[in-house]
Amino acid sequence: MEPPGQRVSLIFVGQRNFYTEYLTEWLADLTDLKGIIWTASARHRLRSHLGFVWKRSRRLGLFRVLSEILYFIGVQPLRYRDGIAVKQIIAEARKALPADISLPEALEVPNLRADSIRSYLDERRPDIILTQCINEIVPESVYSLPKIGCFVYHEGIVPEYRGKYGTHWAIFNGDYDKIGASLIKVGPGIDLGQVAFTEYVWPQGRGHSANWWEHKVLFLALPRLKQWIQDVSAGRVPLQEQKGKYPLYSLPRFGHLFKRAARVEAYERWLAQNHPPAPTASPPAGS
């Protein structure tokens, strides 16, 4: 465990769920975790979802949004089972963390433009803001504040898989060599910033939903996130510009329900031929 003075100071921003709760504990063991901002939490989530659907309908059309809603209704049985599986993985991983981890006072906000965020960040002045599980664009008033930068821990290899559900789209496109996670510096635009790292991982996918793939990919890439945090603590912050222009991926649609099984089976065949079984061991604890 590094001496406190050598630890990077960090604030985590994301929606609160069993995965991000574990992630804050993992970060508290690895960094000087100065704060947690929970956005679109349970009491704000319904309003947030309704607003998201309304804005998306105006921008993309009602038919497109209904197709996306029907997809998520169709995979609900998988999502329920997958939630249980992810909770089991996290429960096992928690055993590697110290029992005496303490978390800082958290701030709960409806969105990242809430007035209370600025004072919360000004009081703590972190080196880094780390975001995950957010469904909104981070405003400049947030991403411009930390000394080193604001970073999003992203499911998908960039620049090829910007946007949502990178693993789902890579499997549907047969682009198996582009499955993994990226750490991207937040700036103007969506997932367009400098890249701190990309980490390729290949989870088993049969019988699982896009939601499970998202959590599993990010979980398997945690050792690479740990390495990057240790590099930053040692004064190394390597960043690379993204090269090439690629589409911004969005939510799966209703028709994917009928193609899903065949696409995942093809991915599983490729996985068996090209890579050993996905790692099952827990990622290392923060210290």
Description:
- The protein is built from ten helices and nine strands.
- Helix content is 44%, strand content 16%.
- It has a single domain (4-274), classed as 3-Layer(aba) Sandwich (Rossmann fold).
- A seven-stranded mixed β-sheet has the order 3-2-1-4-5-7-8, sandwiched between helices. The protein has a two-stranded parallel ribbon with strand order 6-9.
- The chain has helices spanning 18-30, 42-60, 62-74, 76-94, 115-124, 140-143, 166-172, 210-220, 222-233, 256-274, and strands at residues 9-14, 32-39, 106-109, 128-131, 149-155, 162-163, 180-185, 195-200, 248-249.
- 35% of the residues are buried.
- Helix 1 (18-30) runs parallel beside helix 4, helix 2 (42-60) packs across helix 3 and helix 4 (76-94) runs parallel beside helix 8.
By oligomeric state, this entry counts as: single chain
Question: What do we call the CATH topology?
Answer: Rossmann fold
Total separate domains: 1
Q: Structural class per helix/strand content? A: alpha/beta
Strand order, sheet with most strands: 3-2-1-4-5-7-8
**Level of helix content?**
40-55%
CATH architecture: 3-Layer(aba) Sandwich
Give the low-confidence spans: 1-5
Radius of gyration: 19 Å
Q: Whole-number average pLDDT?
A: 87
- Gross morphology: globular
Task: Quickly name the level 1 CATH class.
Answer: Alpha Beta
Notable traits:
287 residues, two-stranded parallel ribbon, globular, 16% strand, alpha/beta, 10 helices, single chain, Rossmann fold, seven-stranded mixed β-sheet, disordered N terminus, 9 strands
